[in-house]
Amino acid sequence: MRILIIEDEHYASKRLQVLIKKELPDANILEIIDTVEESIDWLSKHVEPNLIFMDIQLADGLSFQIFESIKVKSPIVFTTAYYEYAINAFKVNSIDYLLKPIDEEAFRKAINKYQEFYPKYNTKINWNEITKELVQSKEQYKSRFLVKTGNSYSYLNCKDIKIILSEEGLSFAYDQKGNRFILDHSLDKLESILDPKKCFRISRKFIINLEAIKKIHPYFNNRMKVDVDLKIDENLIVSREKVKDFKMWLDS
After folding, report:
1. What is the DSSP string of the chain?
2. 186-214, pLDDT tens digit by residue?
3. What domains sit in the chain, N to C, each tagged with a CATH number?
4. Euclidean distance between CA atoms 22 and 82, whole angstroms
């Protein structure tokens, strides 16, 4: 079974993943999307999933806007913290409406309803092989960068990058020895091509590697200060709007 998750809350997304793995161990979670805009883009470019778990209030609006832009044929299980959208949910192809926090028994009933209404998707398929092929064809996260050192070129492995600093329109990567390299990408681009399990953008100025962190301190104005295992003149401060996501990243 091919499942798409459209959810902008980190813990709700993790909860769904746990329940899916428990109740549908052979399922393949295709993607986790957190905005209306990205959902429309993804659904317009990919084969329709067998089932969609869809939050109603997303980062950039209500998920009902998706149905106004494209035709969605996949059955949907809506997830939300509010009763008020139930009627609208069943105007589209919803098979169930789960209230957060999602109860395991309610989730199981939703899956049973899905399997009853859509038996054609219950046929055993070797999703491991299909997933393997998809992963091989899908763009992977960056593993290394071409960098210039003096008059010659070499490469810098992403795993060796401790921090990336944006300064005067340029991006500088620091390795474990404190060497500094210019990267030909903006911080916005780097944030999208680096593995999010290993790297986190703590502010508009810094991306940090998990393995570089030595200690984390509370900092004034509800921010956090990060100590890393290399010498740098800059203070690494987690911006206030990033603190919550930073904590969840560390706890993931």
Report:
1. -EEEEE---HHHHHHHHHHHHHH-TT-EEEEEE-SHHHHHHHHHHSPPPSEEEEESEETTEETHHHHHHS---S-EEEEES-STTHHHHTTTTEEEEEESSPPHHHHHHHHHHHHHH-GGGGS---HHHHHHHHHHHSPPPP-EEEEEETTEEEEEEGGGEEEEEEETTEEEEEETT--EEEESS-HHHHHHHS-TTTEEE-SSSEEEEGGGEEEEEEETTTEEEEEESS--SS-EEE-GGGHHHHHHHHT-
2. 999 999 899 999 999 999 999 999 999 99
3. 2-137 (3.40.50.2300), 144-250 (2.40.50.1020)
4. 26
Condensed to tens digits (0 to 9), the pLDDT of residues 126-135 reads 445 545 544 5
Question: 239 exposed, middle or buried (CB, 10 Å; 0-12, 13-18, 19+)?
Answer: middle
Alpha carbons 212 and 155: distance in angstroms, whole number: 20
**pTM, rounded to two decimals:** 0.48
